[in-house]
Design goal:
This protein has helices at residues 2-18, 22-41, 46-51, 53-66, 73-96, 119-134, 142-166, 179-196, 208-225; strands at 103-105, 112-113, 116-117, 170-172. By secondary structure, it is mainly alpha-helical.
Length: 226
């Protein structure tokens, strides 16, 4: 009886979720970031909202992936590879200091493996999926789309980097962000887009451009005022 009731409730949840519209998810993401913006701007509440950063990242990424229409086996395999390879590059980068420069991770992003937060895989996945979807409908060749998507990633990273130091996401040697970091970000982003996104996120997604805009605005305001 209980098993049947749980199954029925689950079916109701699935049916209700299938009726969720993109604009509703966009509003939810915007409200989450607005709350984070306010909370991180107030010294008293900043520690709490720093602790909520992993939750925000996972939820935003999950909602983004949900609105890709073609989620077949190849989609999930390539999504997983993007996250794993992004994480692997960070592990090598932290331990050799040769890829992005001299940096290490703080405690805000949570549990670490080999000195790199596991959530970094989610971050790479979100960045690639978001920017890949943004260039999907542009009348460009595969090479140009990959280059443009990587450029969009670097533009956003340019705003994230100084805030990451303040919020203890990660930090750089002498607190100076090297140009090498942005070059490496572009190269890694380009390779991930070139080899993996055609079978993953090179398809329209109504949430992707809005998520990018919300994150761009979020980090820009923090960059100016925090």
């Amino acid at each position: 009886m209980m098993r049947m009731a749980i199954k029925q409730q689950w079916e109701i949840v699935k049916q209700n979720w299938q009726q969720v519209q993109p604009w509703q998810v966009i509003v939810l993401i915007a409200v989450m970031h607005l709350a984070g913006l306010i909370g991180l701007s107030i010294p008293l509440t900043r520690p709490l909202f720093q602790a909520l950063t992993p939750f925000n990242l996972v939820v935003a990424t999950g909602l983004l992936l949900y609105f890709f229409e073609q989620k077949n086996k190849a989609f999930w395999i390539n999504a997983g590879l993007v996250g794993l390879l992004g994480f692997a590059v960070e592990v090598v980068g932290v331990h050799t200091q040769l890829i992005f420069g001299q940096y290490d991770y703080g405690s805000t992003l949570g549990l670490k493996l080999w000195e790199v937060p596991l959530l970094i895989a989610v971050n790479w996945l979100m960045m690639v999926a978001m920017t890949g979807a943004m260039v999907a409908n542009l009348p460009l060749g595969h090479l140009a789309q990959a280059a443009l998507a990587a450029t969009l990633m670097v533009i956003l990273d340019f705003l994230i980097e100084p805030i990451a130091i303040v919020l203890d996401f990660w930090d750089w040697y002498l607190h100076e962000i090297p140009v090498q970091n942005f070059i490496a970000w572009w190269i890694v982003g380009f390779l991930l887009h070139y080899f993996f996104t055609p079978r993953f996120c090179r398809q329209p997604n109504p949430v992707a451009p809005w998520l990018y805009f919300i994150q761009f605005t979020f980090f820009l305001i923090l960059y100016i005022f925090v």
